[in-house]
Amino acid sequence: MPEILEIEYYRRLAHRSLDRPIASVSAPDAWYLKGDTDAARLTGELVGDSFVAARRIGKLLLLDLGGGVALGLRFGMTGVLEIDDDEGVDQLRYASARRDPEWVRFSVRFGDGGELRMRDARRLGGVELDPAEDRLGADALSLTGAQLRSALAGSRAPLKARLMDQHHIAGLGNLLTDEILWRARLDPARPAGELDATTRRRLHRHLCTTLDQLLERGGSHTGDLMVARERGGSCPRCGSALLRRTIGGRTTYSCPAEQR
DNA sequence: ATTGTGGCCTGCCCGC
DNA sequence: TGCGGGCAGGCCACAA
After folding, report:
1. Which residues contact A169 (CB under 8 A, 6 or more apart)?
2. pTM attached to this predicted model
3. What pLDDT does A73 receive?
4. What's the rounded mean pLDDT across residues A201-208?
5. Which residues have a Cβ under 8 Å from the Cβ of A69 and sit 6 or more positions away?
6. Pairing of strands A126-129, A70-74
7. Is the CB of A56 under 7 A from strand B?
8. Residue A96 CB closer than 7 angstroms to strand B?
9. pLDDT per residue over A34-88, tens digit each?
10. Does the nearest atom of strand C lie within 7 Å of A124's Cβ?
11. Residue A146 needs a FRET pair 20 to 30 A away by CA distance; which of A38, A42, A55, A198 works?
12. Which helix (H) or strand (E) element contains residue A57?
């Protein structure tokens, strides 16, 4: 499950693709091309040009072309970025380590012989030219307290669902959100708009430190709750049996004793 | 607008 | 040993 941390690793890896003239594009899977993007348009926009910047908004990776168009890459749950046969992450939870050539849904060959590839077994990711960037909320890795406040304000949705709503905060997925709320000792089911200022600041603090720490450790799957995130798991802090629920349409683990 | 639900995709794991 | 069902979750369409 690439979440914001994995896409940040991909963005750093993607620096290696900058300023290398593009010789050809392979987009064999039409289903993988989103919006009005098709193989012919991709070839027309990319070939002969180069990527000049690698940006990221939440889980969306953006490679800017010299001509002004942006190539948007979404990785879904199992998407992996490879450049010149190096991968952006060592291991992706739920993604296979196999490198089946059939799983390459999109690739860009550079004039120097190197290649950028998107490998995605389950085809939940996608490629789109000029994706709608303005539909994404504030980026979670640089989220300010004011941005968190405005993202939660007035919402009656469960706190977890609101934190994962990419239109309000971009980048948080299921594992990171469970980890953050567990560290902040907050019930994922609490109505998002009902946090008082003190509690909201606590959440903001844990959100920032969790992302920083897990980015250092190596990814979304390195959280402290992770080892217990299975049926029958118990809280790594207090030992209580963890609660397993569906919140915001996602399997959610929380400690009923500590998270209030 | 907000919130909830279902479906997409398919590899993998478990139980029989 | 093979098979079938459930599960994983990012994202979108849709309904109320």
Report:
1. A58, A137, A138, A140, A143, A147, A148, A151, A162, A163
2. 0.95
3. 96
4. 97
5. A45, A129, A130
6. antiparallel
7. no
8. yes
9. 998 999 999 999 999 999 999 999 999 999 999 999 999 999 988 999 999 777 7
10. yes
11. A55
12. strand A51-57
